Amino acid sequence: MNYQAFSSDLSPAETIVFRSAEENQEMMQRHGVNQEVRQLGRGKFRCDMAVRATEHADLYADRFNRAFSMRLGPPAGTVGLLFLRSARGHALASGSRSGSWSRPLRAHGSPRPGPRRKDAARSAC
Questions:
Q1: Phi, psi of 111 (to 5 degrees)
Q2: How far apart are CA 15 and CA 76, in angstroms?
Q3: How many Cα atoms occupy the beta-carbon half-sphere of 107 within 13 Å?
Q4: Which of 21, 45, 76, 121 is 20 to 30 Å from 113 at the Cα level?
């Protein structure tokens, strides 16, 4: 599923647009996500994020317009499952090359680094 399909029927309250890596990082930290985001190239930063909350899981889809590096840790007591997608079909996750739809699993407290993208990127469910 791509970002548009995931977010097309959500209300504006369930979608967020970040205009800086710092804004993205601060918002996620307020939700208990240990996240560090760094833009790797020049240009205006934009990240679109959509959230679907269910009884047992919160699902996030985001779309970045620039190459970025991210260190990511889920909130305490949770497990994060990440599906990476890229226009070029590759990324680095936990230090290893990953194709689109790879599934790096990261439990709370795991010391592994998060994904690093060389092109505009997004995650999807």
A1: -85, 0
A2: 24
A3: 1
A4: 45
Q: What are phi and psi of 32, to 5 degrees?
A: 85, 5
Q: What does pTM read for this prediction?
A: 0.68
53-84 pLDDT tens trace: 888 888 888 888 888 888 878 888 887 777 77
Q: What is the C-alpha to C-alpha distance for residues 42 and 33, in angstroms, rounded to an integer?
A: 26
Whole-number pLDDT of residue 15: 92
- CA pair distance 33, 25, nearest whole angstrom: 9
Q: Structure tokens of 108? A: 């709370």
Query: Amino acid identity of 21?
Result: A
How many Å apart are CA 11 and CA 124, to the nearest integer? 18
Give per-residue pLDDT as tens, 4-58: 888 888 888 889 999 998 999 898 888 888 888 888 888 999 999 998 888 888 8
Q: Is residue 24 helix, strand or coil?
A: helix
